[in-house]
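Friendly challenge for the regulars: who can give me the structure tokens for this chain first? No prize, just bragging rights.
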Amino acid sequence: MKHSTLEKISELIERYPALEICRAELISATEKICKCFCNGNKILICGNGGSAADSLHIVGELMKGFNLPRKIETFDKNFVEQAEKLFPADVDCFKKNLQCALPAISLVNEISLSTAVANDNAADLIFAQQIFGLGRRGDILFAISTSGNSANVLYAAKVAKVLGLEIISLTGRTGGKLKNISDVTICAPADSAFTIQEYHLPIYHALCIAAENEFFS
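First reply, four minutes later:
Bragging rights claimed.
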């Protein structure tokens, strides 16, 4: 791993000194995320309410350029070569606008599937069903719960554990029940939902910035 990648965690803690208590977990999460992408795997993300919005936000930072340019002509020459052969009229548009991605999927957006699971099976399994269908060994479940006790997130983590996924959790101070299932639990040093979420955003921004740095700097 690049030294500059882990520096992104130090920069986060310089901005938010209270997160010093999470340094080891932040470094471990960064290492696991980078290993996941290096091996061609993906991140699956879930949460409820504001944490559902966070899961979508994370996908937005990973699946296109965030702080750095991710030009396909620099980082995916094979794609460019194939596009030039198959669709030469479009290759300039692709080169100008497509950006390399770090594969991530939010599990909160599948309304038809989630409502079907909730209606036909069990509402608490809306994320677990998607993990069962999409998760593969080597993937990561990024589970967000301010309490660490959200039932649907816990079930997703349990199914992920059975399937051999690694679990990175983003919670509040205690970690809740999720802490006992996760490989890495980043416990924001706060207790109320809104103050926990105020830490969650800079934490996951830093993790996305670090991963981007590892692959595109």
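The chain has a mean pLDDT of 98. The beta strands are 43-46, 104-106, 140-144, 166-171, 184-187. Your move, everyone else.
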